[in-house]
Amino acid sequence: MAMTFIPSSLIPFSIIMAITTMIIQRSHLLMALLALEAMILNLMILIMTLSNMTSNMNLFLSMILLTFGTCEAALGLACLVKMSRAFGNDHISSSSLNSC
């Protein structure tokens, strides 16, 4: 019981830290993407620790969450490559909607 208590108490803290990192490092796209990945992985760990994986619904929910995390990572990486080729850096402030 003590082994599951420590991760389940640290997971909300790590989700809050990922959100804080995303707020603080909002000028760089790469840091925002890494914070989003940290949130997805922390949510996955939270689902696995809070629910026993005997139910098929919990397994299905974790697979959906991992699928969305993978799609988010692929789209984020494509946007990062496109932005770095177009503007030369990953600063969000260098790209604006007026230049499109």
SSE ordering: HHH
**Class per helix and strand makeup:** mainly alpha
Number of strands: 0
- Average pLDDT figure: 77
| Beta content | under 5%
- Outline: elongated
Number of helices: 3
- Main sheet? none
Low-confidence stretches: none
Helix proportion range: over 70%
Radius of gyration from the alpha-carbon trace, in angstroms: 17 Å
N-end to C-end Cα span = 55 Å
Short note summarizing the structure:
The chain is mostly helical. It contains 3 helices and no strands. Pfam families: Oxidored_q2.
Q: Can you tag this structure with a few keywords?
A:
mitochondrion; mainly alpha; translocase; 100 residues; NUOK/Mnh_C1-like
Please characterize this protein's 3D structure.
It is found in: Membrane. Its main location: membrane. It is a multi-pass membrane protein. With 100 residues, the chain is mainly alpha-helical. The chain has 3 helices and no strands. It is elongated, with a radius of gyration of 17 Å. The model has no long low-confidence stretch (mean pLDDT 77).
